[in-house]
Design goal:
hpI Integrase, Chain A, 2 domains, three-stranded antiparallel sheet, alpha+beta
Length: 122
């Protein structure tokens, strides 16, 4: 959340414990390697809480039936997709995120607590 990464960048992260040099997650350095729009890569720092949470997730992920897949985020049937992640995120979480960053469009995101359509000026 605090990286400012796009949803597609987050679900597209790769992780393979057998090949640490190819991973998009570096917990020792506290950073994520993202592949953004247009195939441009960038490095994003992550905080202590995120590092701790990712460390816990990686330990649980190792026991997942699809742990051999190259993606960091796994679902029951394999790779976690942006659509599945969008469905999983609660409305309350979206409202908190939008309230803290105000990056959502007021005309497009009623989950942020703003009206779905812009009100006319009176």
């Amino acid at each position: 959340m605090d990286t400012g990464a796009r949803l597609s960048e987050i679900v597209g992260l790769h992780y393979d414990p057998r090949h640490p040099a190819e991973n998009d997650v570096d917990l020792n350095e506290g950073q994520l390697r993202m592949m953004g729009k247009g195939g441009r890569g960038r490095i994003l720092p992550i905080g202590r809480k995120a590092i701790r949470a990712l460390d816990r997730y990686l330990r649980v992920r190792a026991k997942h039936p699809h742990a051999d897949l190259p993606w960091l985020w796994l679902a029951r049937k394999g790779r976690l997709t942006p659509g599945a992640l969008r469905k999983r995120s609660s409305g309350a979480a979206r409202r908190r995120a939008c309230a803290s960053t105000r990056t959502c469009s007021a005309t497009r995101s009623p989950t942020c607590g703003w009206p779905a359509k812009a009100r006319p000026m009176t």
